[in-house]
Design a protein that fits this description.
Chains C, E: It is found in: Cell membrane. The complex is a heteropentamer, with two copies of chain A (246 residues), one copy of chain B (297 residues) and two copies of chain C (276 residues). Helices cover 36% and strands 24% of the residues of chain A. Chain A has nine helices and nine strands. By secondary structure, chain B is α/β, with parallel strands linked by helices. In chain B, strand 8, helix 4 and strand 9 form a beta-alpha-beta unit. Chains B and C meet through helix 2, helix 3, strand 9 and helix 5 of B and helix 5, helix 8 and helix 9 of C. The structure holds adenosine-5'-triphosphate (2 copies) and magnesium ion (2 copies).
């Protein structure tokens, strides 16, 4: 197990958000985290990445390096896209020349063109910023990567490419990924396992393996799987908007 | 040779004497040097820090330091009054200042203390009968005077001479409206106004010994004679140190009442002067009259 | 803005703690002072205790309160004028390139002219009284406030500005709602310096112009070489500067910047809190 | 026509982004704007809203008030969620008390709970921030509303509710909406018309009406429509990621 | 960072333009000065042209360059010490609550103590030479720099900080990459004020401490009641202050803050550009 959360719980300003979370990530595994907005997915991910110290429970890490795509792009406004993508590498001590080369390669992988690389973040489109953030995370060749809704602002075509890229890279390079998404289809396409969080019950209400290898599933399969999930109790909270509006 | 012994002087006329004495030679084989302190702070730092061993200061300041335990002792008196109220010709005497604006540099310093005593004796109340404009330094007072913003300014020599000269160049006639020494004599009945003198620190006094101090006094007396004999040359010798043109310094000598009186010889005059200054506030001389130890020679 | 009883209590607790912690700094300072005293002797630097005793004596003298009040009024008037004019001019300059070009040299001029060059003009304009003390304070503090406001406006968030524009907010409202809260942190940085400067400069101006107040007392003590009294008055000025910063500016800043602490509870370890 | 763009074109730093755009919005109409990431959707919307002055062409506006949801939430960090939602109203001069009431109602419509309203933006989850931005825009009862990927960070259930809410509100209150999305299904569900932008051709390559009334279309219909679009040339650029990666 | 020939040319053009526009402000100032001159006469305020002529005369005198250089070195040394120490201490205080509590009173102390109270100590420590002028500059400029750095660090973007942490950046790297670029705008606001102050204070300290340089020349001119020369030297000081701000600080600031202008081309109208 690369990463193991043990009975983790957290509260903000006295209000409990998550409780009794147990979760483990094995090498090469992609775990999707789904749940209604505001249920604590981001919080859980920050705890797993060590950015938030949980009030209860422990986090065990057995890897060298992790990387993260935040829900917002969080690019440094004073660096160009190229330097932003290379930032993780800079933190890891890669020499300047080498990291610029890697950055250019990673940028191509997420569909950024050569002349976008010299732009500063405010000069990039929203989707480009998000893609730069993904490129930054994958550039460091992490052992574990945390992705918080990484493809929410990119168009369908690129999104599919990037999903496949992630699944292939995970299989090839053996890193594991914890990724948050609101798109059940996305989860069904590329995750090995699915974790469903509940806002009402403040914890994991479902944890299942998805059959077949990620990236090898066809459209039909994904559609049917999502359709099947729609009828299940575990997904009711996510799919039922009306129940949450007064 | 041992390093030169430095005599420190104020930015005023008594420094002419120091410049002369330095030019003349040495004391006990030790050469002399002369420098000017620019502000009371510099002077206090020099005395407290021990860099100024022989320094010309206002006599009441020496008494104050002595009484506060700084160890400073007065060697002699070098001037008997170099303060003047310079103004337009129509004002005469202290009472003539009634109703006028007078620029006074250095609040609470010697000039201010003297003027206020004079005004008190003349029954003039500042703020009511006369308007005192306090300014930071003599040049400001002169600037205001020349611009016609005040009617008179309280100045010491050589600033008073310089102001009169400058006024002449600018087509403005200025005169010494009040000779403070004369006014002081009238007001207090004292024979003189021993304003400033050379004071020495214990370390120097011990090193020189009685003989050395005598020699120093002798040098100053000799210097005084030469200054009196040729004021123009004396002015030239001190001009660079005072940062004023030589003619100005030369002209100022005549009205500076330079002397070289041993402190003990002037003791009576000094105690009288101290008593008058400290009438309102004995803290001016450090709480009371200094004892005999104060008079170094 | 959130403001419930619990919040107020927490704020007060933080405030007391910070006062207590602040005392540490002051005590270190006092220790250094005592050391310097022992090195240089009482004539240069009286020891802290003597100074405090002298200050206590002074405080009982009649007219002491009036002098402090007089100086305080000058310092605060000068500060408020400088803070107000400087912030206003800096803001305008931050928005408008043309205004910046017109004002910047004027402010550098105000900043760079040595006091002795304009002291005579100040004497003519304001007389050797309180007016010139206030003017001196304004001259000293205005450029600080100006530079802060200028930089604050220049670094405002253009995205939020565009948002407000999209909702039809006029320039004034945009300034108030978008630029000002951001600007405040620059202004408080400037004002913290400015208020200390104000006290110091007011006292110096009084001292040179013999215009009463604490500066007048200081001038007198200095002329008499009454060093303990000089030190006591100095301590008084520093206490006043500390006081107006900590009792006036910092609470204002706390209140205006409370939003900055929002959302930091989990990730930032606060030094006075113990992990539960 | 509430809003009309006439031959609009724009370039950033000399690089043309869009060219010769003609577009009109009628009252009560919802127009979806789709296109690949970085093709100029946000730019076009900012031009329409008057935030960017176009280099070429003109924008005609014939309405009283508009509102906008930006691609990022753009909440004021110094205001609570409540005051942020009420901010548009504050700009319109609504009295304080009244606007707080409206804000509470609008917050409920987007699924924000009462105790979320006192939180500052960094204390909200990503989805909550986005929903607050939507609530802020709808609170001002605008005549035209611009929405830039407004539902990208909310879960499936809430997204459906908010889509329906938008469609109903547009029909009921008669406002028109220009909204950008990467989700063709979303466009197919609630738009009256669809505008497809191309990055390659720098302009509109397709503009079509969608049959049926928005909000009244069922799942099946939407699915089939999107499936049909997938085969069309106009959508190739959006759906084909591979073509854009070297 | 982008830096091609076109960018450099654009920058230089902007720079020339800004110098030209800046002259407007200076000329307005000169007009006001001329008016005051006509009101108060040459004794209080010589006219600008006479002053400039006097300055030109002065500049040809031997020893003039040396004096300016001497003062400049003192001002710049003092400024750099103050900017460095102040920024470093302010940064530490911004990160650490404990350091803040220890340092803040010390800085307020440095800020609030009237010069006459410590000038004697400074004279003893540094002698009546350049040292005490530098010390005076440091004392005047350090608190400004400190307050700026403190506020800058306190308002850093915690989100970006967390990002860097997630990528394994250590505290030093996080400071350099995340906090510093943000901090710089606060520091430049502070330093703009500090460098002007440095020149002024250096001259005043030389004047009072009898330590040569421009201040010494000013003292001499004043003692001779040579008001045009006093004004000429004043103008010189102001020009030096303007120069060190515009030729040293502003170009640095431009270079460091170039990213701030990114993405504004469409929405912000730049006053010198004409819509194509
Ligand atoms: N302020 C700016 N300065 C310079 N270039 C810009 C600016 N804003 C946008 N661009 C460029 O214009 C192009 C279009 O950007 P825009 O934000 O309109 O794309 P978009 O269609 O909204 O993309 P996305 O779906 O990713 O949000 C991009 O290439 C972007 O880099
Ligand atoms: N720093 C914080 N301070 C206070 N409350 C917080 C903070 N961060 C999150 N919360 C609260 O914790 C809850 C969970 O937030 P979180 O961001 O983890 O949700 P999420 O599952 O990521 O939602 P979304 O899908 O909308 O991004 C929310 O109610 C939020 O208001
Ligand atoms: Mg989230
Ligand atoms: Mg966009």
């Amino acid at each position: 197990m690369k990463l193991r959360l043990e009975n983790v719980g957290h509260a903000f300003l006295g209000r409990t958000v998550i409780e009794g979370i147990d979760l483990a990530l094995a090498a090469g595994e992609i775990v999707a985290l789904v749940g209604p907005s505001g249920c604590g997915k981001t919080t859980l991910m920050h705890i797993a990445a060590g950015l938030v110290v949980p009030l209860r429970g422990r986090v065990h890490r057995a890897y060298r390096r992790h990387a993260m795509v935040f829900q917002e792009p969080r690019l440094l406004p004073w660096l160009t896209a190229r330097d932003n993508i290379a930032y993780g590498l800079a933190c890891a001590g890669t020499p300047r020349r080498h990291r610029r080369e890697i950055a250019a390669v990673r940028a191509r992988e997420v569909g950024l063109e050569a002349d976008d690389l010299d732009k500063f973040p405010p000069e990039l489109s929203g989707g480009m910023r998000q893609r730069a953030a993904v490129a930054r995370a994958l550039a460091v060749a992490p052992d574990v990567v945390f992705l918080d809704e990484p493809f929410s602002a990119v168009d369908a075509g690129l999104r599919r490419m990037m999903q496949d890229h992630l699944a292939q890279a995970a299989a090839r390079e053996g890193f594991c990924a914890l990724f948050v998404t609101h798109d059940l289809g996305e989860a069904a396409r590329i995750a090995d396992r699915l974790v469903v969080l509940s806002a009402r019950r403040r914890g994991i209400i479902d944890l299942r393996a998805i059959p077949d290898r990620p990236g090898a599933r066809d459209e039909r399969f994904v559609f049917d799987l999502v359709a099947a999930w729609s009828c299940e109790e575990a997904f009711a909270e996510i799919l039922d908007g009306a129940g949450r509006l007064q | 040779a041992s390093p030169a012994m430095t005599l420190w002087g104020p930015p005023a006329a008594p420094s002419v004497l120091l410049a002369q004495a330095v030019a003349a030679g040495s004391i006990q084989g030790q050469s002399l040097d002369f420098r000017v302190w620019r502000s009371p702070d510099e002077m206090r730092a020099g005395i407290a820090g021990g860099t100024m061993q022989a320094v010309v200061v206002p006599t009441y300041v020496a008494a104050n330091f002595y009484n506060r335990g700084a160890g400073l002792r007065l060697l002699n008196v070098l001037t008997e009054g170099l303060l003047y109220v310079v103004g337009t010709p129509d004002a005469e005497g202290v009472v003539g200042l009634a109703g006028r604006r007078v620029a006074v540099p250095f609040a609470n310093d010697m000039p201010d203390l003297v003027l206020r005593r004079l005004l008190a004796k003349a029954a003039l109340t500042p703020g009511r009968d006369i308007h005192l404009d306090y300014v930071g330094s003599p040049p400001e007072a002169v600037q205001l005077l020349l611009a016609g913003r005040v009617d008179a300014a309280l100045l010491s020599e050589p600033a008073a001479s310089a102001a009169i000269l400058r006024g002449g160049m600018a087509g403005k006639e200025l005169v010494r409206a009040v000779d403070c020494r004369r006014a002081w004599q009238v007001a207090t009945g004292a024979a003189s106004m021993p304003q400033a003198g050379l004071a020495v620190m214990p370390a120097l006094a011990d090193r020189l010994g009685g003989e050395g101090l005598e020699a120093l006094q002798g040098a100053l007396e000799a210097a005084l004679a030469r200054v009196k004999a040729d004021p123009a040359a004396a002015g030239g010798a001190a001009a660079t140190a005072l940062e004023l043109p030589a003619p100005v310094v030369g002209r100022a000598i005549a009205s500076s009442n330079l002397v070289a009186l041993r402190a003990s010889a002037a003791r009576e005059a000094l105690t009288g002067f101290f008593a008058a200054l400290a009438e309102d506030d004995p803290r001016i001389i450090g709480g009371g009259q200094p004892d005999a130890g104060f008079y170094a020679l | 803005m959130r403001s419930d009883a619990k919040g107020v209590a927490a704020w007060f607790g933080r405030y007391l703690w910070s006062a207590w912690a602040g005392a540490t700094g002051l005590l270190c300072l006092a220790a250094a002072w005592q050391m310097a005293h022992e090195l240089y002797g009482a004539f240069i630097l009286p020891d802290p205790l003597t100074t405090l005793a002298t200050l206590a004596d002074l405080a009982t003298e009649p007219g002491f309160g009036a002098a402090v009040k007089e100086t305080g009024l000058r310092a605060l008037n000068g500060f408020m004028l400088a803070a107000g004019i400087g912030a206003a001019a800096g803001t305008v300059a931050g928005y408008s390139f043309a205004a910046l070009r017109l004002m910047k040299p004027v402010v550098t001029f105000i900043l760079g002219v040595p006091p002795i060059s304009w002291i005579v003009l100040a004497l003519i304009w304001f007389g050797a009284s309180g007016g010139s003390a206030v003017a001196t304070v304004v001259v000293a503090a205005l450029p600080i406030s100006f530079a802060g406001a200028l930089e604050g406006v220049a670094t405002r968030d253009r995205g939020l500005d565009a948002m407000a524009r999209a909702f039809g907010a006029g320039p004034l409202r945009r300034f108030r709602d978008v630029t000002l809260p951001h600007l405040l942190s620059y202004l408080f940085a400037a004002w913290t310096t400015a208020i200390g400067t104000a006290w110091k400069v007011a006292v110096m101006a009084e001292l040179l112009g013999n215009a009463g107040g604490v500066g007048g007392a200081l001038a007198r003590a200095r002329a008499l070489f009454d060093i303990p009294q000089v030190m006591a008055l100095t301590v008084l000025v520093v206490l006043c500067a500390l006081g107006s910063d900590h009792l006036v500016l910092q609470p204002l800043r706390e209140a205006a910047e409370r939003w900055r602490t929002a959302g930091q509870s989990g990730s930032v370890k606060q030094p006075w809190s113990v992990r539960p």
